[in-house]
Amino acid sequence: MWSWLRKSPSLPPVSIGRYWGSRSDVIKIVQGLGDIETLTAYLLLVWSEWEGQSYKDEMCGLIKSSLSGIRMGYYRKELLQHLDHVLGQLELGLDHLQQHDPRLNEGDIQWRQEKYEKLKKVLLEVDKEAVKLLICESSRLVILFSLLNSCGQLKDPTQCLCVQSLLHFCSYMSGTFPITSPAP
């Protein structure tokens, strides 16, 4: 399976690597590597309309523990796009999927849709929490800069521009407008 990790397209629809590679013990090993690039590539590989293993709880835990935080936004976005693709393939229906794997039935499709919708929901929740944290931290910086400005500590026009940029960023991210902005 590791030889396929960075290849595209993914594993064939019926693959022993897909079955063994998406097991709980493999999930733990990949997570234990501590490399977000490898983890993302792994999830892109095993999250597929063809993947029939459960391990939904392990995957949800993996998302919460390894993909939370502000710096993981790029990886979450990539995984969300991939999940949208997988869900789109599942929506094509049983006839389409049975062309590659005649053993599939409606229950398989429904079960996989529920699984991937749950993973997508968890990814979106983690992403939402990261944005809240970013807004909170940015707001704290704005307050600090505003206090420095009101005390006359900000003399450099560049510093004032930084404060204004942070205010606009916080406004944009939170959907509100700043009450006050520091004078340039």
Strand portion: under 5%
Report the span from N to C terminus. Answer: 58 Å
Major sheet size, sense and barrel closure: none
SS content category: mainly alpha
**What overall geometry do the principal axes of the alpha carbons give?**
elongated
Number of separate helices: 8
Query: What is the H/E string?
Result: HHHHHHHH
The overall pLDDT average reads 75
How many whole angstroms does the radius of gyration measure? Answer: 22 Å
- Number of E strands: 0
Portion in helices: 55-70%
Uncertain regions spanning at least 5 consecutive residues: 176-184
Could you describe the 3D structure shown?
- This protein is mainly α.
- It has a domain of 128 residues.
- 67% of the residues lie in helices and 0% in strands.
- It is built from eight helices and no strands.
- It is elongated.
- The C terminus is likely disordered.
What's a concise summary of this model?
Helices cover 67% and strands 0% of the residues. By secondary structure, it is an all-alpha fold.
Write the layout of secondary structure elements.
Layout: H1 16-21, H2 24-32, H3 36-46, H4 56-66, H5 73-91, H6 94-98, H7 106-150, H8 157-174
Helix pairs in contact: 2-4, 3-5, 4-7, 5-7, 7-8
